[in-house]
Specification:
This protein is mainly α and 167 residues long. It has helices at residues 20-30, 35-42, 52-65, 70-81, 87-96, 101-112, 115-126, 134-146, 151-159, and strands spanning 8-11, 14-17. Helix 7 (115-126) packs across helix 9 (151-159).
Length: 167
């Protein structure tokens, strides 16, 4: 008995292990993946006789068919994350997922357009009061920094007069 865990498909009463291709399609059916991320997801399911070239061949086939796209993956991540996180955090996540530097640069430009507004909105949800002391200012700045916002945006948010406090 192999130590690998296999999910079984039942066809006409017979159980067969899922192929790498089937697994890749199932993963892509749930959400977008980067090329690198999907390859890493498939590695544990390599059979003893197979090598990493089998995964590469499947990924390249999916790429040519348009089923796997780093550009689409990047757009999805940016859309999902830009309301909660800043440029640094989004760029770092894309780097970790193996997205190319060109796509990251495009994503950074897109996120920078609304970064100050997003930082203000996140700050307003969490604190909504201007810092009264240096310690409070530092606490609020650390919070925004942990969300990936740049120091320029943090300074603008924390040092601005918050006219919307009355609303």
């Amino acid at each position: 008995m192999s130590s690998k865990r296999f999910d079984k498909l039942t066809m006409n009463g017979f159980s067969t292990p899922k192929s790498l291709r089937q697994r890749a399609l199932e993963y892509l059916g749930k959400r977008e993946y980067s090329h690198k991320e999907l390859g890493q997801k498939l590695k544990p399911y390599l059979e003893d006789g197979e090598d990493a070239e089998a995964i590469t061949a499947i990924l390249e086939d999916f790429k040519t068919r348009g089923w796997l796209s780093d550009k689409r993956f990047t757009e999805q991540i940016v859309h999902a994350r830009q309301a909660k996180f800043g440029v640094a955090k989004i760029a770092n996540e894309l780097r970790e997922k193996g997205v190319s530097a060109e796509l990251i640069a495009d994503a950074v430009e897109q996120v920078k357009e609304n970064e100050l507004d997003n930082a203000k909105e996140i700050w307003r949800k969490k604190f909504n009061n201007a810092p009264a002391s240096r310690e409070e200012w530092a606490k609020q700045a650390r919070f925004l920094q942990s969300r990936g916002f740049g120091f320029d945006s943090i300074k603008k948010v924390l040092n601005s007069k918050h006219d919307n406090d009355d609303e």
